[in-house]
Design goal:
With 506 residues, the protein is of the alpha/beta class. The chain is 53% helix and 9% strand. It binds iron/sulfur cluster (SF4). Residues 73, 75-76, 114-116, 258, 260, 366, 392, 395, 397-398 line the site of iron/sulfur cluster.
């Protein structure tokens, strides 16, 4: 009797050679348009043609469901659908053979218990579904500074990696500026325009940055260079021209959640950040730099766990500790160029300690212990009135965090926390859930503001008069210190009082 053997055959892309580089475009995506534009600049400087995928749209969810496992998490479905839509469009416009010859898709992945370790598997299902398994798709390991795809056409060198890291930092900082300024802008639309100008300016800088050395020299140059600081000083001048009114009382809402969902700006997360702004909030967006910082520090924590068993423990600890410190140092230098308006990176050790009673930090799927840690960090340091956590439908790691948060809320009943499940097609439910918590956050912001006025003996009119004497206070780049209030307007009143010579304390 004949037996039929079904053998699993792993997808293996055809090589991408150096000779093909000049006429081959690298497709990539999954971030915001700002991050993608700057990463594009970093790649183009190294001789790669590149093109971000179009922003994720609602239709990508339906397309994704056609090609991949129906139980896949919502970010995987959205991004797989987005890839499928792009490939179909290009095949139609440029022809199937040209698509296969002139494009490759590059994605990142890492080992791990969640689907992030298997995104490429879903993308392979897309290629099968479209019957183009000879289209080239390359998976790069997120944690490697240097690597190459088969064939030598795609080489991730130190200068390219550092260019990408700077691109990510710069996009994070501009995004922080954007969300800190837009709710208070006097001229509607000005912030969005300045964001676009800033990103284009930085794109050109990344695209024409000097390439110094290959390995250690490249590392040293990227740590000490003031090239990007100078670029940001030019950007700051653009923001200097934006006038703001910080007396608008708004609740500050910190966005946390799964990596892709919290970063994304668009249909993939119901455009929740813009929706919150429309509802009268100031949003604190999540920088990608925090996640990279987490990955670096996790190496340190794991090493400390195995202290008794690791050879050259102190040397290794020193090496990783130095990388972690340099990472923050560079980020803070860039923040300084924007007068520290973008938020600092949280202390990873503190996040771990805050989360410790609720979430074991070695459970590293998704955002690991950071969801719990970030919520408590924002609450204890009074950075936000409310946490909006974006939880993807079908995500196991996130389900664990949300479960742990139940205990956190038992211990901190005062913490305003809105976990929003994102399925991709149920925005009314998500908005209404968020709205309930937002109402309370608004009340607290108002209460704080009134308390600040009472403490300082000021009135809104008096603050306005003072602004006329000191017009620089209304610049978007003017830094208002933190006086222990979560709200921008309450801290602003305290600051004005201090400038007037009143004793305010913190
Ligand atoms: S963390 Fe969750 S949503 Fe994100 S890739 Fe992993 S399983 Fe999917």
């Amino acid at each position: 009797m004949e037996t039929m053997e079904l053998q699993y055959r792993a997808y293996k892309p055809k090589p991408f050679t150096k000779e093909e580089r000049p006429h081959t475009t690298l497709l990539f995506g999954g971030l915001t348009w700002k991050h993608e534009r700057l990463l594009q600049g970093a790649m183009e400087r190294m001789g790669y043609r590149s093109e971000p995928l179009p922003n994720v749209e609602r239709q990508d969810l339906d397309i994704g469901k056609e090609y991949i496992d129906v139980g896949a998490c919502c970010p995987t479905t959205f991004t797989a659908g987005n890839l499928a839509r792009t490939l179909m469009t290009k095949a139609k416009e440029e022809g199937l053979e040209n698509l296969k010859k002139n494009y490759i898709f590059v994605t990142i992945g890492a080992c791990g218990p969640c689907r992030f370790g298997q995104y490429h598997e879903s993308y392979e299902r897309v290629l099968e579904g479209l019957n183009i398994t000879d289209f080239r798709l390359f998976l790069l390991d997120l944690l490697q500074m240097e690597q190459a795809a088969p064939g030598g056409g795609l080489e991730i060198s130190m200068p390219l990696t550092f260019g990408l890291v700077y691109g990510m930092f710069l996009a994070d900082l501009i995004t922080d500026m954007e969300y800190a300024v837009r709710p208070y802008e006097m001229m509607e639309g000005q912030t969005d325009r300045v964001v676009r100008e800033s990103i284009e300016l930085l794109y050109e800088k990344l695209k024409s940055r000097p390439i110094k050395g290959k390995k250690l020299l490249s590392l040293a140059w990227h740590v000490v260079t003031d090239y990007f600081v100078k670029a940001l000083r030019e950007v700051r001048e653009l923001w200097d021209g934006v006038e703001v009114d910080r007396l608008r009382v708004k609740p500050r809402v910190k966005i946390t959640g799964e990596f892709w969902l919290q970063t994304h700006e668009g249909d993939g997360n119901y455009n929740i950040k813009r929706w919150l702004e429309k509802e009268g909030a100031e949003v604190i967006p999540p920088p990608i730099a925090v996640w990279m910082d987490y990955l670096i520090n996790m190496e340190l924590f794991k090493l400390e766990d195995s202290k008794g068993y690791v050879k050259k423990y102190h040397l290794k600890k020193f090496a990783i500790g130095t990388i972690a410190s340099l990472y923050k140092l560079v980020y803070n230098r860039l923040r300084k160029a924007l007068n520290y308006i973008p938020n600092p990176l949280p202390d990873q050790r503190e996040l771990k300690e805050l989360a410790k009673p609720y979430f074991y930090y070695r459970l590293t799927g998704g955002e690991g212990h950071m969801l719990v840690g970030k919520a408590l960090y924002a609450y204890r340091h009074k950075h936000a009135h409310m946490i909006c956590e974006l939880s993807p439908y079908g995500c196991l790691p996130n389900t664990m965090s949300v479960g742990a948060m139940a205990k956190v809320l038992g211990d901190y009943p005062d913490l305003l926390y809105a976990p929003i499940e994102i399925k991709g097609d149920a925005e009314v439910h998500a908005y209404s859930r968020c709205q309930m918590i937002l109402t309370e956050a608004k009340r607290r912001a108002k209460e704080e503001f009134e308390e600040a006025l009472e403490r300082t003996g000021l009135t809104v009119e008096r603050v306005r008069e003072f602004e006329e004497e000191r017009p620089e206070l209304r610049r978007a780049t003017y830094k208002v210190p933190h006086y222990g209030y979560a709200g921008t307007s309450a801290n602003y009143v305290m600051h004005v009082a201090e400038l007037m010579g009143k004793r305010v304390g913190t």
